[in-house]
Amino acid sequence: MSGNVVIYDGKNYALIDNKLIESYLIMDRNYLSGFLKDTTTRLENYLNKHGHKSVNILGLNKSLRYKEGIFRRR
């Protein structure tokens, strides 16, 4: 992976230039939700914790894409 990675915790941002560090990001999970596909319980809990919902005002699922990964040392 080349380029920068931005991490946001809801309040602060961290910019990581991966050309300057000796590690890399391994993407290990990829999730989708939307029409006829509910979010996972884990994502639902995360959204609720941060004041967001996975459904719109009509009660229909929002289209969401989310990925997880880990930083590994080389």
What report would you give on this structure?
This protein has one helix at 41-49; strands at 4-8, 13-17, 23-33, 64-73. Strand 1 (4-8) and strand 2 (13-17) form a beta hairpin. The strands form two sheets. Strands 1-2 form a two-stranded antiparallel ribbon. A two-stranded antiparallel ribbon has the order 3-4. 12% of the residues lie in helices and 42% in strands. The chain has one domain (4-73). The chain contains one helix and four strands, in the order E-E-E-H-E. 1% of the residues are buried. The longest helix is centred in the middle third of the chain and has 9 residues, at 41-49. It has 74 residues and is mainly β.
Structural class, judged by helices and strands? mainly beta
Gross morphology: elongated
Number of helices: 1
Mean pLDDT: 83
Q: Main β-sheet: number of strands, strand sense, barrel status?
A: 2 strands, antiparallel
SSE sequence, one letter per element: EEEHE
Give the C-alpha Rg: 15 Å
Write a brief caption for the model.
The protein has 74 residues and is mainly beta.
Topology:
Blueprint: E1 4-8, E2 13-17, E3 23-33, H1 41-49, E4 64-73
Antiparallel strand pairs: 1-2, 3-4
Core attributes:
1 helix, single chain, elongated, 42% strand, mainly beta
